[in-house]
UniProtKB/TrEMBL annotation:
Membrane topology: Multi-pass membrane protein
Family named by the database record: Belongs to the 4-toluene sulfonate uptake permease (TSUP) (TC 2.A.102) family.
Major localization listed first in the record, in broad terms: membrane
The keyword DNA-binding belongs to this UniProt entry's keyword annotation: no
InterPro entries, per the entry: TM_pro_TauE-like, TSUP/Inactive_protease-like
Keywords: Cell membrane, Membrane, Transmembrane, Transmembrane helix
Localization in the cell: Cell membrane; Membrane
Protein name (record): Probable membrane transporter protein
Natural source organism: Aurantiacibacter spongiae
Record-level GO cellular component terms: plasma membrane
Length: 304
């Protein structure tokens, strides 16, 4: 079933795009992270231009985050106070990212930058996640009984001025820290089309020291609003959002997420983290390989 993508300016098999959305949705349901950081690379591998893939993936993440926010909100799992600060930073980051996106696109380097960012970030996250999962597995095999250290925010966070009390997260820290986190995530969302959950969740846990029971819900709350803004900015500035592509991805991701949630109930968390780390590293290596290989066409003609 061929479908024409008006912004990407090419025809694709609609069933393949839905299947890609289902795969990322399934991974989202299994591993508890947004699928945006895998959607964009998979679309690029399929032949979608990186600029269109990044912008359209952000649109898909927006739609996929809505139900998650409502579910966690019912269980008191969202800290709206610190979430609002992160969203404010994300809005500023999205505007900065839009400027960088436009500049790099005018220089003809945006595709290369997107690929390099994915290689660096996915390689780093995959390595850290895999090391943590292997440590837990080996510790269990050796029947380690060491007590886990109490989670606290990073010492650099404690040195920042103007502290606020975030009751639901159990924090007494400066709002500057979550503001900077939102700024970084907003820029990455604009440039890469990711929701930022694979960066935001570890940062909330190990840098801000937030309570684990509100981390996932607050992350989804931020992802929802940041990707919503990024989609609007892309639509009005870069004009790279392909609504047909985003719609096909969303259909697949909603279905895949339901399947992934059921699969997650039968597997151990450390096994899931190790599997996700292997997937992330495989994608990073594939993108690194693509950066070093001479393309079939060494030039392109872009209509003005």
């Amino acid at each position: 079933m061929d479908v024409y993508l008006p912004i990407a300016n090419l025809a694709v098999n609609g069933l393949v795009i839905v299947a890609l959305g289902a795969v990322t949705g399934m991974l989202s349901g299994v591993f508890g992270v947004g699928g945006g950081f895998l959607t964009t690379p998979l679309l690029i591998f399929y032949g979608i231009p990186p600029t269109v893939a990044a912008a359209s993936a952000a649109t898909q993440v927006t739609g996929a985050s809505v139900s998650g926010v409502f579910a966690h909100s019912r269980n008191q799992g969202v800290d709206y106070q610190i979430g609002g600060v992160i969203v404010a930073g994300g809005m500023m980051g999205a505007l900065v990212g839009a400027g960088l996106f436009t500049l790099l696109r005018s220089l003809g380097q945006i595709d290369t930058v997107i690929n390099i960012l994915y290689v660096v970030l996915l390689g780093t996250i995959g390595t850290l996640m895999g090391r943590e999962a292997l440590t837990v597995l080996f510790d269990r095999e050796g029947q380690g009984t060491g007590r886990a250290a109490k989670r606290r925010h990073h010492p650099m966070i404690a040195a920042l001025p103007y502290r606020w009390r975030f009751y639901r997260s159990g924090l007494y820290i400066s709002p500057i820290a979550p503001l900077i986190l939102g700024l970084v995530v907003g820029m990455l969302t604009m440039l890469m089309g990711v929701g930022g959950g694979f960066i935001m969740v570890p940062a909330m846990l190990y840098i801000l020291g937030m309570s684990a029971k509100v981390v996932v819900g607050t992350s989804l709350f931020n992802i929802l609003f940041i990707t919503m803004l990024v989609t609007m900015v892309h639509a009005f500035t870069t004009r790279a959002v392909d609504i047909v592509l985003a719609g096909l991805l969303l259909v697949g991701s909603v279905t895949g997420a339901q399947i992934g949630t059921r699969i997650a109930g039968f597997a151990k968390p450390e096994h899931l983290r190790l599997a996700l780390a292997m997937i992330v590293l495989a994608v990073a290596l594939r993108m690194a390989y693509g950066l070093g290989v001479t393309p079939d066409e060494v030039y392109t003609v872009v209509p003005l």
